[in-house]
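Before going further, learn to read the protein records used in this course. Taken together, the tokens spell out the fold as the letters spell out the chain. A record is reproduced here so that you can trace the correspondence yourselves:

***
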Amino acid sequence: NLVSVIHFWKFEFVCDLMLVIWDFRSPAYPLTLQIPYPSFIFHVPLGMSANPDLEKLIETIRAFMAARDWEQFHSPKNLSMALSVEAAELMEHFQWLTMDESRDLSPETLARVRDEVGDVMVYLLRLCDVLGIDPVAAASEKMIKNGEKYPVEKARGNARKYTDL
């Protein structure tokens, strides 16, 4: 049936007009479809289990929090604030660097950046878990919206906000 088949698929929007469907049973053979975007809009509630690595990480985070009885502190408000703090700690490593310097970090700084990225990811996934949001679906849906706001022919090569294109 379609529901059990969809469980094995991963959807990727390569561009506004192309959808790649990866079948996890044979990931070497993606199915690429040309779609009439934006008339084609879909939402399939795949859930986070469609990505086994992500689901395993979320389970690890849940177990870590439960063992410490921290769920009581993990309201969406607190998690969003913690996420913001960790994102600021990530930015701290790039403060005052030139663009070129930010691309050529020392191994020590890169290790610290990697730790902060991990912190940001943990809090983001925990927030998604608490709110019942599939982060992959949310990001995919947001990319569709971004494609509408920032059409290639208007946005290519500039950093202006979509309202200024």
In short: The CA atoms of residues 32 and 101 lie 39 Å apart. Strands lie at 9-15, 18-23, 31-34. Confidence is low (pLDDT under 50) at residues 1-49. The chain is about 55% helix and 10% strand.
